[in-house]
Amino acid sequence: MDIFCERCCGLDVHKKTITGCILTPEGKELATFGTMTRDLKALLDWIKSKGCTHVAMESTGVYWVPVYNLLETEDFEIIVANANHIKNVPGRKTDVRDAEWIADLLRHGLLKGSFIPDREQRELRELTRYRRSLTDEHTREVNRIQKVLEGCNIKLSAVVSQLTGVTASHILSALVNGVTDPEVLACFAKGRLVRKKEELLAALEGFIGPHQKKLLAIQIDHLAYLEGLIDALDEEVADRLRPFEADLARLDTGMIRTHR
């Protein structure tokens, strides 16, 4: 079988240990390292000392990420392969260590690397994914507020379109501060809701006690906290996308034309 690379390293990465196998014309060498930063630096020095040009590992969980982040600072050809692809390559022997098997597959060019975006793209993806998690939590918190209101038989959501709107926010704050008179609460109506005062009066007549007020206060504070985090993430994402404003504008224009 043809040799794809003469000096290569296969890594079997776990939570607490990393086993490496280096294959060179001089032979095979195995070593095990921890996963602390000093251990990763020792791993990097070991790989460099053997003159390796190619390094491969499985994309298992998130444990490969810090290893990749360190290796990409050097002049290696790095392959992060899907674990299922590695296992499905014919000829694997059960007594062969994973690191050695990965190194052998790499040596003969039998590994297909997964697409790994560059560091800036990975960081931007982390930001947007975390933002989505926060918006999901924001939605869940709004649903919890709705549940408390239903327990008080306050049908605010039957009149307002969203509990995070201006009118609903003022009414909720007033409820938390002890205002329970529907006539007073309905005066917080803004915009089109002014014309729905009678509906609001009926919806705001309920039974709210100290327990419900306490829950609503905590939930409203949590909503504000989440909104602050989401705004901070929006600013960070906007800053990172600023160099690509022209490209994004062209992309938006193309999408508008497509939907016409």
Q: Number of folding domains? A: 2
Order of helices and strands: EEEHEHEHHHHHHHH
Per DSSP E runs of 2 or more residues, the count of β-strands stands at: 5
Structure annotation, total helices: 10
Please give the largest β-sheet.
5 strands, mixed
Give the rounded overall mean pLDDT.
Answer: 91
Structural class label: alpha/beta
Report Rg: 29 Å
Q: Poorly predicted ranges (pLDDT <50, ≥5 residues)?
A: none
CATH class of the largest domain: Mainly Alpha
CATH architecture of the largest domain: Orthogonal Bundle
Shape: elongated
Residue fraction in strands = 5-15%
**Share of helix among residues?**
40-55%
Span of the ends, CA to CA: 56 Å
CATH topology type of the largest domain? Helix Hairpins
In order across it, which strands form the biggest sheet?
Answer: 3-2-1-4-5
How do you describe this structure in short?
This protein is of the alpha/beta class. The chain folds into two domains: 8-116, ATPase, nucleotide binding domain (Nucleotidyltransferase, domain 5), CATH 3.30.420; 120-258, Orthogonal Bundle (Helix Hairpins). 53% of the residues lie in helices and 12% in strands.
